Structure formats: C-alpha cells, structure tokens
Amino acid sequence: MNIYGVVGYKNAGKTGLMERLVTDITGRGFTVSTLKHAHHTFDVDQPGKDSHRHRVAGAQQVLLASGTRWALMTELRDAPEPPLTDLLAQLDPVELVLVEGYKRDSHAKIEAFRGETGNPLIARDDDTVRAVASDCPLDLDRPVFDLNDTKAIADFILSEVGL
Questions:
Q1: What is the pTM of this model?
Q2: How far apart, in whole angstroms, are the C-alpha atoms of residue 108 and residue 82?
C-alpha cells in the first residue's frame, strides 16, 4: 500500500483537503482508505446503543455489523496508543492510504496551511513534508500549491507514490 500524509495545525484545512483528495482520487478509479489521528477522546458509539453497552461492560473489542458496513472498535483501556504502522496493518489493501495527522512519523506528507491562523510552517523544519497546499504565497524550497487546487495536489501525490 502507498501511504501519503496530510498534516497541518488546527484550522489549516486538513480535513477539507482530505475529503476533496479522496473524491478526486477515487474518481480516477483508484482505491483509497483514510486514517485520521485524533488528539482528543472520541466516540463512534452512542450511549444506550447495544454496542456501547457491550464496550462499557468491559469488552476489549466490539464488532458492529450490518448489511451496509461493519466497524471494529478496540478499547485501549490503559494500553499505550498503537503506532501508525500497527494501525495501517489493520487496513485492507488499497492503492493509497491518506493519513491525516501523524506529523512526526516518517512517511511523505503535504502540509495544509492557512496564513490567517498565524501558525508556523511545519515544512520549514521537516523534510518529510514534500509540498505545501496554502491559501497564500510562500517562498519555499519545495512545491507550493493553491489549497483549493485539488487536481494539482492529487496529481502531485499520485506522482509521488507512483500511481
């Protein structure tokens, strides 16, 4: 599987870029999966639902299945968060996995950047950031794309991974 990351600080446009990239790249006929890192507690389950009750009762894993989709929830309890490589190993094979977050890992990435946020550029100090998608002009030693030019960004990523 080819892996490519989308990184950036909060409100930089990462999730919107991820959504547009998935739409564009799958529209070209490639299979794509995504993996998103969350820095906060999240819950895909709803209190009162059977699967939530199973989890709260102490189940290590709960697999919820229907005729439309299935989801496997794994409780870490007090175990450490698994590394990206372990999480990627849980995915079915596809042509491209887009990873949102995990900016400290060593895979190639594109940085989403909005000038109005006032955050520093990750790319200045990180060679794994191969390009930047920005809403303002930047002077960098690597490609800078318009944040909304999804086609050009997708072309770049697909070229980078050899698809």
A1: 0.92
A2: 20
